[in-house]
Give the backbone structure.
Amino acid sequence: MGGVEEGQADMSRRARRRQARSSEIIGIAGVVAVLVVGFIVSQAVGDTAGLAAFTDVTVVPMDRERLLERRTVLVRGDRIEAIGAADSIRMPAGTTRVDGRQKYLMPGIAEMHAHVPGEDSPAAVEIMALYALTGATTIRGMLGTPYQHELRRRIESREILGPTLFTVAPPFSGNSTRTADEARRKVREYWAAGYHVLKIFPPMSRDVYDAITSTAREVGIPYAGHVPPEVGLRHAVEERQSVEHLDGYVEASRGDERAIADLARATREARIWNSATMDVWKTSWAPDLWTSFAAVQSSSTSRARWSSSGPKRRWSSPGAASGAGRSSRCACVRRPWTLSRYVTGFCRPFIARAPV
């Protein structure tokens, strides 16, 4: 009997877990469903006097951890006009109504480091729709291609479904831009072409970098991206470059927590943005990465393939996880989350809230 009772208890636990997962999925689907319906409605009513109302919906605000139940949200064009109890909002005749019962309404997500496919990708249009359908109503296309202009035009004309797209120019690097004069010319060309942001990518000499930043300030176009080792983080901060992936902070700090705090303070005072993309750090630099991988891949052939692929090639041996054999680029990574804690703590008001 003991075995039967244990089996029944185990089945009951599995059933409860399935029910919990189903509830989570339904809840998430509710959030996405109303958000996407809202996005499509807002595109349909346009930026004129069109009115849309989400009635009897649970609102997920961003000011603190809470839910606002049984609310009606009235939207005029691209602005929220009123939020109130479900029966307290007056809706003029002609208002488009979206039934929000048993659903959730939340702000759209901004993807600040999107890689938008080029025109040679047959899935580009579908990917734009998927951004909107999964709640990303604004993206910044950091993989700069001219095709972004065409996608943006088609989205703005309502020809295809997609998010608000901020376009980033093809990246500057020492391979694509070799002289300061060429850098100045390209900055003006990209500005005239209508790009929103310039992208910095290593390697890059200091004189080319300075030509880019000074010309960008002249014409009024922001610049963002990686921090070339030849330039260094402190100079990039002085030039007020927005930084992707917290690039350059580890090298500049040399693993010293006081230096990290100083860099974070300088970042805040310069009022520059950081698009941290910490998942990249988690998968590429986490100290237990090699140990976790080695536990499931025991062959030396697999380890060789792992250590030679992409950014993970810097982990040259199992000893790298404990400090031996690391390259100079990552020699001081001992507690990677210390950096995240300091920079996000100091710079939270300035992280990824604008398309620059």
About this structure: Confidence is low (pLDDT under 50) at residues 20-33, 296-356. The chain is about 45% helix and 15% strand. The CA atoms of residues 36 and 133 lie 6 Å apart. The longest helix spans residues 2-45.
